[in-house]
Amino acid sequence: MSVAHSRLRYGITTAVAWSLAILVFFPIFWMMITSFKTEEQAYQLSVIFQPTLQSFREVFARSDYLSFAGNSIAISLGVTLLSLLLAIPAAYSMAFFPGPRTQKILLWMMSTKMMPSVGVLLPVYLLWKNSGLLDTVSGLIIIYTLINLPIAVWMAFTYFCEVPKEILEAARIDGANTWQEIFHLLLPMSLPGLASTGLLLLILSWNEAFWSINLSSSHAAPLTVFIASYSSPEGLFWAKLSAASLLAVAPIMVLGWLAQKQLVRGLTFGAVK
Amino acid sequence: MASVNLRNVSKRYGDNPEVMRDINLDIQDGEFVVFVGPSGCGKSTLLRMIAGLEDISGGDLLIGDDRMNTVPPAKRGIAMVFQSYALYPHMSLYDNMAFGLKLAGKSKSEIDAAVRKAASILHIDHLLDRKPKALSGGQRQRVAIGRAITREPKVFLFDEPLSNLDAALRVKMRLEFSRLHQDLKTTMIYVTHDQVEAMTLADKIVVLSAGRIEQVGSPKTLYHHPANRFVAGFIGSPKMNFIDGTVSAIDAETVTVQINNGGLQQVCVAARGIQPGDKVCIGVRPEYLQLDSDHPVIKATVSTVEGLGDFSYIYAASASAEEPLISRIPDTLEVADGSQIGFSIKPHHCHLFDSQGEAMPRTTPPTQH
Ligand SMILES: Nc1ncnc2c1ncn2[C@@H]1O[C@H](COP(=O)(O)OP(=O)(O)OP(=O)(O)O)[C@@H](O)[C@H]1O
Ligand SMILES: [Mg+2]
What we know:
heterodimer; A: MetI-like fold; 13 helices; B: alpha+beta; CATH 2.40.50.140; 5-stranded antiparallel β-sheet; elongated; binds adenosine-5'-triphosphate; binds magnesium ion
């Protein structure tokens, strides 16, 4: 009876999980198919067709994919490094030397994520324009870092909280200064967590579209701008749009897939312990 | 090698009220000192202030002849072993023990010699390549001690180092601590909850309660001459019995007490600040509370008998005491649950406490039978 019951439950959970996975994956799957169709075929729902690389050829001919991709890589790596560089010391002090307001600061930082970005678009645009940061890679790195820093600090903070305080105290007695504590102990001990923080930052900044579209046009434009350039003015070209999108998301999807174990482990670190 | 002196030391966390105050303590060079006291009384706080892991809010800490209040932990000449071992999980045992020396910029050969020496003292030579994860609790504890030894400290600090080990291993490690102290002859300060550890290891026990020192003395002194009711109740297991009464007469070397709902009991103490008619409390250890059906001074009803082999403990409810009386009797005596019994006490086995809980000085050597 209870075996049958738990089987049934297992069956239902599996079905729900699969449905969700398919629901999430379907648009990506459809995009992949469409990118190998011609523009005419793109309007048909059929999944049986003669695959062609025509859209990809046109996309490559029309725009400089490598320049967009290069910007995406530079920006993502820059954001990831800069965010970690700022988040680690911040999280260190919050985790190991908390003051009476530490919790409030953490919550406040997170609350900034709830504000719609468009609410500050105008001031940010003007600031960036006046300081010559518009359409520069560093300008995008700065804004993305600002956006993602709360997540980075929060995650690093959670991982640091898992490190027993006494281990750092033992190191202090052994003569380690703050930097030695961080480099010899804290970083190696929370490496899995920090690695997934880094991965998440990489993915988030790769996928960020709102600010890149508004703050860059050509020179510093990353792949999100590249996709967007296929969507509007001359009408809809589904096949080319799909090909461009596939080219844009492919690198990060491969990376995500390679690192999925690491990501899951890092993100559930606190939960399972 | 160094003495440790605390002068009027106090501690407060943030804006909270003081958790420790007026701590005055002199620890001689080479002494083994044990801090005991109930949970939350400030043992760890005191140890951590000596280590430099907590700020000292007031007063002075001297190690050797130097004031250490603001000296960083690594420069105080101390080493600490934590209850949780606090090993560096990503380093091999060798690196765990070598870490401090590496930071101090010692040469490779010096480090190697120090680590190997500590490892051989603690019999962990064969484990040096392992990570802490791959060790048993007892082995981890040894590594933690080894790490402390390689620092060649002037003072060792131990915060409940054995409390995570099982009973058998605890006994074994206790003996090792004692051997270690004989070998190294270094000053050691040791925090524990365990009576037996305190009694067997200490040259000097410091009893703390609610952030104050209640008494400092050798294990024998604390056992036979507790300064107050708190220390009397805290040292010794099972606990000392406390029997309520009223002073009825005072002589030069004895006080006679009328026990509540009981008889007259002579107590060999010198009266200090008490007068006939004052409420007092007689203290007597379980081994000295004797079954006596002929001339009992206290009557009681047996509630439980615990047989432990050579002897048994009787727990008995009495109208003369708030808590059940505990008496140790030879195993050959048979006592049934629920039976009515009487106790008597020899005058020189009694302690006497005034209504404030302060002890009267005893006038007869306690070991006399
Ligand atoms: N970081 C802190 N902030 C505020 N109060 C603290 C802090 N650490 C300890 N205390 C308080 O100081 C007092 C002494 O604590 P301490 O840890 O020294 O006790 P302890 O004697 O070691 O207890 P235990 O036997 O349980 O280890 C306690 O009342 C405790 O609540
Ligand atoms: Mg403690």
